[in-house]
Amino acid sequence: MAQEDVFKKLVSHAKEYGFVFPSSEIYDGLGAVYDYGQMGVELKNNIKKYWWDSMVLLHENIVGIDSAIFMHPMIWKASGHVDAFNDPLIDNKDSKKRYRADVLIEEQLAKYDDKITKEVEKAAKRFGAAFDEAQFRATNQRVLDNQAKRDTLHDRYKNALNENDLEELRQIILDEEIVCPISGTRNWTEVRQFNLMFATEMGSTADGAMKVYLRPETAQGIFVNYLNVQKTGRMKIPFGIAQIGKAFRNEIVARQFIFRMREFEQMEMQFFVRPGSELEWFEKWKAFRLKWHKALGFGDDCYRYHDHDKLAHYANAATDIEFLMPFGFKEVEGIHSRTDFDLSQHEKYSGKSIKYFDPELNESYTPYVIETSIGVDRMFLSVLSASYTEEQLTGGESRVVLKLPAPLAPVKLAVMPLVKKDGLPEKARDIINALKFRFHCHYDEKDSIGKRYRRQDAIGTPYCVTVDHQTLEDNTVTLRNRDTMLQERVSINDLETIIGDRVDITSLLKQLI
Ligand code: ATP
User: Fold this and answer.
1) How far is the centre of ligand 1, averaged over its atoms, from the C-alpha of 224 (Å)?
2) Does residue 416 carry a pLDDT above 90?
3) To test ligand 1's pocket by mutation, which of 20, 306, 331 has the most ligand atoms within 8 angstroms of CB?
4) Are residue 190 and residue 201 in the same domain, yes or no?
């Protein structure tokens, strides 16, 4: 199935089963804003818990905070967001559609990559076992041509970004003959910078209202609380502060479902270290974060690092963790070595000293920072797309199953009486009443057992228990596994242990240490 079709199916599945709804849908929606439904909120909470616990439970030297969305406007001046939190935008004069110039060029780069991959795959098929990929890449003329075009484009693009050369960005778009996907023309406007922050007013006008921003990232809430936490928590460097919260960006082009939203959620951790040790910590956090992703079991091929072409002027290393979405490898998380930029800026703008006295070195310094920053919604999308599976079953039947990692599944256990009589519903309720303190359980007595299994498959419930007449005699039930569809007869007394071992977040956390 074409990847575009997979994505469409995913979006409609997410809606049909209560994961994600367009916001304000009865008023025809609001651009790039989404609501999470009854299943979505559970999955989202589980993702957040997995991240939070991996930070604050597994690391003695990481603590959490929850800072306000509104902050003093000077913070955004100090952080550089007021002057430089911009995206380069370009309009197509025929379709009147707006694009990010950098994204258009990055898509063009991906097209060259695709062409090369296709040549390699074709040749691999043709030559079979005798295929030598390295040799093919080094000698095939079409591959070499495409690689050369890609490299030239990449160099030009990188230079244009680094020099903030908007004219050159436009020229690249023209030279590469990039067309608007809607109008199909190359009738482009100039490239302009566009600030992504939402502004509003605080206080009544009579008092003199103050312009405030909806935060475009959660990180600044951590920086401005650095001193509070360090002092009250008696934290010693190296230590980290973690936070989960909403962020807002007036994205120019907000497409691709929950991949790029105007209101979204971030999970960020700032790790404060001694100057000079930051690159070592950067490598450690890079490795730990990839491990966190891989522990979910979607396969190592779904991930790759992508080092930044353009380093922010204050950063001395930055990489993204990209995930293979239905629309290609895309950034899910950024890991940045931000030097002492943020704390120094706040020191300068607030006039307060934000130094750390290091008792071991017997000196004061402004700590350096490694940041790990991941979008909850992008993570949600990656989990959903990696889990969505259509399976052909024997007998011509098929099923849609969300093969969610069990600890992330919204519902852990569905309990179903075989029939709606003979005391079976009551027995099923007893099971739920005993287990509901630990697992999110569903009771379902409607339709045939087969249909009920399909409904649970569609929301990714790892286990279904069926209560039948034998249950009343020997206190056993059938336990069905979502992925294998195998059923085994187990004692009700053993359910908590069998299920608990697989569905607790602990089973993921243990893989990280
Ligand atoms: P992009 O290049 O895709 O705009 P970014 O590099 O600006 O992303 P960061 O500022 O590094 O993103 O933010 C950290 C993380 O926050 C990203 O890796 C992503 O998961 C998430 N994120 C950023 N912007 C959005 C958005 N508009 N919608 C959903 N998630 C977002």
Assistant:
1) 21
2) yes
3) 331
4) no
Are the CB atoms for 168 and 156 separated by under 8 Å?
Answer: yes
Q: Which domain holds residue 103?
A: 86-195
Which residue is closest in CA terms to ligand 1's atom 9?
334
Q: Ligand 1: does its nearest atom lie under 6 Å from the Cβ of 263? A: no
Ligand 1 pocket, 414 CB below 6 A?
Answer: no
pLDDT band at 235 (very low <50, low <70, confident <90, very high): very high
Whichever domain contains 305, its CATH number is: 3.30.930.10
At 67-115, the pLDDT tens digits run: 999 999 999 999 999 998 999 999 999 999 999 999 999 999 999 999 9
Domain boundary among 392, 418, 439: 392
Q: Which residue has the tokens 């409904």?
A: 455
251 pocket-lining for ligand 1 (C-beta < 6 Å): yes
Among the three residues 170, 195, 220, which one is the final residue of a domain in this structure? 195
3-7, 161-165, 344-348, 494-498: the lowest-pLDDT one: 3-7
What per-residue confidence (pLDDT) applies to 1?
64
Note the pLDDT of residue 418: 97
Q: Which two tokens stand for residue 283?
A: 């490598």
Q: Which pLDDT does position 28 carry in this prediction?
A: 93
**Residue of 79, 250, 266 with the most ligand 1 atoms within 8 Å of its CB, for mutation:** 266
User: Which two tokens mark 275?
Assistant: 């100057």
CA distances from 471 to 244, 345, 431, 463, 498 (A): 44, 67, 11, 17, 18
Residue 76 belongs to some domain of the structure: no
Burial class from Cβ neighbours inside 10 Å (0-12, 13-18, 19+) for residue 97 reads middle
User: Which atom of ligand 1 is found nearest the CA of 331?
Assistant: 18
Q: What atom of ligand 1 comes closest to residue 333's alpha carbon?
A: 18
